Amino acid sequence: MRIGVGSGNPVKRRAVEAVVDGDATVESVPVESGVSEQPVGHAETVAGAENRARRVLDAGGYDYGVGVEGGVATFDGAEGLYLVMWAAVTDGERTGRGAGPGLELPRSIADRIRAGEELGPVMDDVLGTDDVAKKQGAAGALTAGRIDREAALSAAAAGAFGPFVTDLYG
After folding, report:
1. Which of 12, 62, 124, 145 has its CA 20 to 30 A from that of 133?
2. By residue range, what is the domain housing residue 153?
3. pLDDT tens, 118-165?
4. Looking at residue 45, which CATH number applies to its domain?
5. Whole-angstrom distance, CA of residue 72 vs CA of residue 95
6. What's the whole-model pTM score?
């Protein structure tokens, strides 16, 4: 089975590899998300994941296209701005969706995001690092390593594969 992950980011590929059968081949397929660099809200973040998944299948030769997208969003009933992760899996006929953990952003970081900055560069600035998105991610920094970006994205991908690995979705 060939699975294409709609990103050139190795963390996203590894996140999918962690939740699929060992006999599957998982490949990075850099595609455009079709959404802003910093998706805001669940709808835009989900759209980015779905667009990536479909564009992987359009690239040809894959049994499943997977899109993984991080964004920022609010939740009804909870104050603050949150880091959110969504994944979509499609075989061309059906689409499964799953979400990773929602992690509240510190007010100082949330204020910069609301002012129009992107989370990755803000986190790099705050942490004094480069390319945090290809390492522990904001999730790792915000939880002191208790969960890193790969694990958070794996949770979203596992949920998105649900309709393809169980009969409960009929």
Report:
1. 62
2. 2-104+147-169
3. 999 999 999 998 887 777 889 999 999 999 999 999 999 999 999 999
4. 3.90.950.10
5. 22
6. 0.94
